[in-house]
Amino acid sequence: MANNLRKIVIVGGGSAGWITAAMLSHYLKDSPCEIELIESEQIGIIGVGESTIPPFLQLIRSLGISEKEFMQETQAAFKLAIRFENWRQKGEVYYHPFGLIGGLVDVHEFYQVWLRGKAEGHPSSLQDFAPASVMADRWKFMSPAMAPRTMLANANYAVHIDAALLAKFLRKFAEARGVKRTEGIVKDVATRPDGFIEKVILQDGREASGDLFIDCSGFRSLLNGKTLGTEFLDWSDVLLNDRAIAVQTANIQDPHPYTLAQAQDFGWRWRIPLQHRAGNGYVYCSQYCSDDEALATLMSQVEGEAVRDPWLVPFKTGMRKQLFNKNCVAIGLAGGFIEPLESTALHLIYRGVDYLLRFFPDRDCDATLAAEYNRRMQIDYEEIRDFIVLHYFTTKRDDTPFWRAYQQVTPPESLRERIELFKSSGVLRDGVDDMFRAPSWQSVMEGMGIRPKRYQQLVDTLPAGVVKGLLDKSAPMLSELVDTLPSHGDFLRQHCPAPMPEALLKRAG
């Protein structure tokens, strides 16, 4: 049609730019629309988004990419869960697993059946029935697809990846599908009389005009923030952390199949192991902890030798009020940031492009489409914000000024209502296209000490012996099954081994 987009300009590379380019080039492969990505090797990428959630692998599969090839090219390891240490109280551990916990019992949700069992004195823990948690805790792995008709089929998984290698891999994918990469730094942005972006001007004078501009310029938000002046919704009143220090270390043992999120005195520490190295970081609040203190804390706790110098990432939590403003769509950090506790940064990039494809504009960039895009994306951002605040707001820790400050935080009303509804009888408020399903909320609520006052009455229709018999039998059966599985390290070596990176080979030599 005459008004179709003829040219899309993506400003910025990294994970955001190249995921966007890969998706657009795949879905527009039979379209005459040109795609140009402008990036500069002089501008480093943040590079800490190395942990994913399961929908990320759906993206890889939807692009027709071999999972094995992807794992090998990005040094990836598997991720079954997030292991939370010291969050509710020091010394406590719980898992947030991927996949299902238990399964339907007749017509009843397993969680409600388990609540009845607990009310009747059963000694089990909720995660005893989550195959992903049991595997993660024992450093075991098996793809659920390889274990059909067993309890393992209820598990799900994501991956830990090298963010720089991810961008490199998807650049190759996108360029093979016609994306033009331009090396250069954007110096200026020209707008039309109606406020739409007309073109970007590079430092050397070259220009790139387009009909639609994708802002992947990171925290600078060069187009959406700086040029269009889109308002930023600041969430630092409920998410107190504002800095992170990251460092990469060589593995000294096989990687564990989970992301470690270990609460610290003034924030929390992550450990994300890949096949040969690990990403480590300390997310903290600068009001209570200096950069030097954070670095010293992190380096005193990491395992293995550092393979590059640590780097600092200052950040501000929140989002742009309009991610889609005029003819500009902000993707990734240019649109917003929620601290990385639940590994959602890469997912929000994928969601942002997915929604763009659903509400794909023409050259007029209809404001109605943009408004619906913004509404749907804001729901996603707010759901993640609430889920992360849940971890802090429900802590019992009061041993440092940081944790005491969280005792004074007023949570978003949407989260407060969700918690109250859950406390009544374990009911969860369902949204449209929710990112976090019931097992996620149930796992974190239970891990943080929030258990409903009662189970739903309908579960009483189950005969008395059925609940106890099911719980007595299921957990040991799952435990015995997991004991037969290969270790995570062995599974990687057998199915998708990645070559040792050159930097690590040199150190080993």
UniProtKB/TrEMBL annotation:
Flavoprotein keyword on record: yes
SUPFAM superfamilies in UniProt: FAD/NAD(P)-binding domain (SSF51905)
UniProtKB keywords: FAD, Flavoprotein, Nucleotide-binding
The keyword Nucleotide-binding belongs to this UniProt entry's keyword annotation: yes
Residues annotated to bind L-tryptophan: E342
InterPro entries for this protein: FAD/NAD-bd_sf, Flavin-dep_Halogenase_NPB, Flavin_halogenase, Trp_halogen
Binding of FAD, residues: G13, G14, S15, A16, V186, L333
Active-site residue numbers: K79
Entry's Gene Ontology molecular function annotations: monooxygenase activity; nucleotide binding
Name assigned to this protein: Tryptophan halogenase
Organism: Caulobacter flavus
